[in-house]
Design brief:
single chain, alpha+beta, Alpha-Beta Plaits
Length: 133
């Protein structure tokens, strides 16, 4: 299960050319029921699906993404691989573009973003995030 970057992966990302645009290929697998144990202050009154929790995260994040000059380039339903391990599937795939690496860091370190990021943690069983330049 991979939900957050490691200090090493963040250091590697910081080494990218800070003025070059970057896109993030994001693949996510939802929990059947969202797990708000790490962020109970965000938990809804009744249990919701991981997919619903991720939609709350997206609704919260998209305006903040736009504020740093970013945008969702692709948002699509996933599924099993055509070429790849048959036991692996991704429920949702996104490509999010940023004008610079710094814009990505500006978003992910923004206190307003962090206040709603728990919806993402609650939503996901697993994820991958691949920077593309």
């Amino acid at each position: 299960m991979y939900l957050s970057p490691t200090p090493e992966s963040m250091a590697a990302l910081r080494a990218y050319d800070s003025n070059e645009p970057v896109s993030m290929l994001t693949m996510v697998r939802y929990r059947e029921i969202a797990d708000y144990s790490e962020c109970p202050d965000l938990a809804p009154d009744l249990p919701i699906s991981g997919k619903h929790a991720y939609s709350l995260y997206s609704k919260h994040t998209i305006p903040l993404l736009a504020a740093v000059g970013g945008r969702v380039i692709l948002s699509a339903r996933g599924g099993p691989f055509l070429i790849g391990p048959p036991e692996v599937r991704w429920d949702h795939v996104l490509v999010v573009g940023y004008p610079t690496i710094q814009a990505f860091f500006d978003l992910t370190q923004n206190p307003e973003y962090l206040a709603g990021a728990g919806h993402r943690t609650a939503a996901l069983a697993d994820s991958r995030l691949l920077p593309l330049t």
